[in-house]
Amino acid sequence: MPDVSIGATAHLEAAQAVATAQSVPATAAAPSTFAREVYAGLIAALLGLPFAVSAGVLDYAPLGSDYIAVGAATGILCAVVGGLVGALGRSSSFVVNAPSAPLALIQASFLSSLLTAFGGDAALTLAVAPLSIVLAGFWQVLFAWSGLVRIIKFAPYPVLAGFVTGLSLRTFVQQFPRLFDLPDPMAFWSALMQGSLPHLGMAAFGLAVVAIIRVSDILAPRVPAMLVGLASGTILWHLLLWAWPGLELGRTIGAMSLARATAGISFDSGALAAVFRNPDLLQPLLLTSATLAAVAMLDFTFTVRTAQSLADLRLSPRRDLAGQGVANLATAVLGGMATTSTLSSTTALFENGGRTRLSSAAMALLLLALAVGLGAEWRLIVALPLYALGTWLRVAEEEKLLRTAFGADYDAYAARVKRFVPGLL
Fold first, then answer.
1. Residue 230 — pLDDT band, cuts 50, 70, 90?
2. How far is Cα 361 from Cα 92, in angstroms, rounded to an integer?
3. Which of 181, 213, 281, 421 could be a cystine partner for 199, CB 3.0 to 4.6 Å?
4. Which of left, alpha, beta for 368 (phi over 0: left; psi -120 to 50: alpha)?
5. Is residue 246 part of a domain?
6. Mean pLDDT, the chain, whole residue set
7. Rounded to the nearest 5°, which phi and psi values hold at 160?
8. How confident is residue 27, by pLDDT bands cut at 50, 70 and 90?
9. How far apart are the first and last CA of the chain?
10. Which residue has the higher pLDDT, 255 or 70?
11. In this structure, how many other beta carbons lie within 10 angstroms of the beta carbon of residue 378?
């Protein structure tokens, strides 16, 4: 359960802030508040960019390597659209809407079924896939309008934490075999039983990236360790290939264009009609949309509860869930990926000073600026190695798993680990 002392601390900080504001002219306080919110949005955007790219790559994986860059661009576009619409549609807070790995895996499964049904036609698959996001957004608005979302407030905290932990564990298990360039857990288990795990060099590289993230978190706690890990892993990847061109470490994302990410606007009316006439396609469509809506709603509830424990926010569950549903309707039309309230970005906003919708809206807009600048001008995004990005995602899911499992005790747990490791070394 959330620690009551956190709320007490927040009340004390709020009282101190009010006292400070009364002694400082309003003209001097406003720019400082605005700058703090925008700064929080910038840090969260830097952290959210690889999350959006990873989710897009996971979602589009069934379509093959030719769609990796399209998936990355789609993830970014949906993070921008979903984040901005969510920030404007819900109560003012630092809660963030963005694509997530669990939702991406659900959508990838639906893409696979569509791809099989349409005989491998990727264009037709992408023309129909956003329909599941449209329905998911509709279900969320319906849950909010009907008051069904109120049922969630009676769900015990351990149940919500267990659910979110299960999603993170599933994502981690699904992604772990890719350390050895294996497609799924069954392939990993089979190779392990045969004593012939492949690509041990790739696994060593992945573990090196994990070590960099953990050491950075211990030695430089004020610097975002995930950013250090991604930047260091990318540089190390390119240095290794420069020194040993024949080394097998996978490929980079490749040329990316946000203009190619607008798959949602290419709805095919004939294909949509065929889906509704075909029970074999209609059933997975309805199940996928309902699953996306339910997972997003529970993820939303857990994130909101965590945010309330951090800052004692007064939110409106019905309005906030409806805002998330409208955000998904927007991302379905423009990009075709579902979004949800993300714990990592929400926590990053709070830790860096974000308190209102200004920080979450700034994050979305700055994410777009980073995607355009780093992608088109500096071409840094296209140079991101898929293997380093996948390792980064596994560490992020591991941290999310620990955070949800330990709940309010996570910070104390992390502090103990940080004290123990230097002593061990």
1. confident
2. 10
3. 181
4. alpha
5. yes
6. 79
7. -60, -45
8. very low
9. 34
10. 70
11. 11
59: containing domain: 30-424
In which residue are the tokens 């409208």 written?
326
Q: How many residues does the chain have?
A: 425
Cα–Cα distance measured from residue 287 to residue 414, given in angstroms and rounded to the nearest whole number: 38
Query: In whole angstroms, what is the distance from residue 414 CA to residue 275 CA?
Result: 49
State the Cα–Cα distance between residues 92 and 8, nearest whole angstrom: 21
DSSP count for the chain of H helices, then E strands: 17, 2
* Structure-block tokens of residue 196: 């012939």
**Pick from 183, 54, 71: nearest CA to 129:** 71
pLDDT digits (tens, 9 = 90+) for 89-136: 998 899 999 999 889 989 998 999 889 888 888 888 888 888 899 999
φ, ψ (nearest 5 deg) of residue 222: -85, -15
pLDDT exceeds 70 at position 421 = no
Q: Return d(Cα 414, Cα 403) in angstroms, integer.
A: 9
What are the residues facing 98 on neighbouring strands? 340
The Cα 359–Cα 96 span in angstroms is 9
Q: How many domains does the chain have?
A: 1
pTM recorded for the entire structure? 0.80
Q: What are the phi and psi torsion angles at 399 (to 5°)?
A: -65, -40
How many other C-beta atoms can be found within 10 angstroms of the C-beta atom of residue 280? 10
**Rounded-to-integer distance, Cα 362 and Cα 40, Å:** 8
DSSP 268: -
Confidence grade of residue 338 (pLDDT, cut at 50, 70, 90): very high
Does residue 133 form part of some domain?
yes
- Residue type at 111 in one-letter notation: L
Neighbours of 210 (CB within 10 A): 17
CA distance readout (Å), 113 to 135, 175, 394: 17, 20, 25
Residue 330 neighbours by CB under 8 Å, 6+ apart: 81, 82, 85
DSSP 39: H
Within-domain flag for 331: yes
On the question of pLDDT at 407 being above 60, the answer is no
User: Which tokens sit at 69?
Assistant: 């860059």
Write out pLDDT tens, residues 137-190: 999 999 888 877 776 666 676 776 677 677 777 777 777 887 788 878 888 889
E strands, 210-291, in order: none
Residue 120 lies in a domain: yes
Beta bridge partners of 242: none
Residue among 283, 337, 324, 309 at smallest CA distance from 71: 337
